[in-house]
Design goal:
Layout (H helix, E strand, L loop, with lengths): L1 H77 L10 H8 L10 H9 L7 H23 L7 H17 L8 H42 L1
Helix pairs in contact: 1-2, 1-3, 1-6, 2-5, 4-6
Length: 220
């Protein structure tokens, strides 16, 4: 009788152990699946952000090149460069006083914010992404669209309004007037400042894309 009782107790204990181990295994498996699902979502999000950044990089480089080209034309106009054709003076002024717009691709970042920025497990990478979108991009957008000294079109409108006849006649002597040269100097100063901002942002985007690539390769 005693042996049967011990056997039953041992059987019950074994069943408890088996059930407990089974629960633990199921729990660990479920936990692994959740972690894997979270990693898959993170990987997909990082790839989407990288795709958006690649498109932003094209826009940033184009605008940067536009500002640098404008600076070259301003220098040409300020030096009264005799080599440029008189019939291209109007085009040089148009380039010198041209405005640009930066429209970043934010769809992936907006999705990230909606799902929770903690989806990005790498703390430093997450901070860099947030800083780029919420600080660096915002600065460029505000400079290009809302910062009064960086709105150049009105200078071109002024030139056309006051010197249209001379532009048409190929006269370039008026370019050296204090009125025109002061406007060119103001725009040159602002474009140099904006160009530096663009150059710094381009470098940050390039570094961030590289870090995202590294994160994807190492973690996924």
């Amino acid at each position: 009788m005693e042996k049967k009782t011990q056997f039953k107790i041992s059987q019950i204990l074994l069943e408890i152990v088996v059930v407990t181990v089974g629960i633990l295994i199921a729990f660990q498996l479920n936990n692994w699946k959740e972690v894997r699902a979270s990693k898959d979502k993170e990987e997909k999000m990082l790839k989407e952000i990288k795709t958006n950044l690649a498109l932003d990089l094209i826009d940033l480089r184009d605008n940067f090149s536009g500002h640098r080209m404008a600076l070259e034309h301003i220098e040409s106009l300020q030096n009264s460069d005799p080599t440029f054709e008189r019939n291209k003076v109007g085009g040089k002024f148009h380039s010198a006083f041209r405005d640009f717009i930066f429209s970043p691709q934010t769809s992936a970042f907006e999705t990230l914010k909606a799902r929770g920025v903690d989806l990005i497990s790498n703390d430093s990478l997450r901070i860099e992404i947030l800083r780029l979108y919420d600080f660096d991009y915002v600065i460029i957008e505000k400079i290009e669209e809302n910062y009064a000294p960086s709105q150049f079109t009105h200078h071109y409108q002024y030139i056309v309004l006051n010197y249209y006849d001379k532009l048409q006649n190929g006269d370039i002597h008026w370019i050296s007037s204090a009125d025109v040269q002061n406007r060119l100097s103001l725009v040159r100063f602002e474009r140099q400042y904006v160009s530096r901002i663009y150059n710094e942002c381009i470098q940050k985007v390039e570094v961030l894309i590289s870090k995202i690539n590294k994160e994807i390769q190492n973690e996924f």
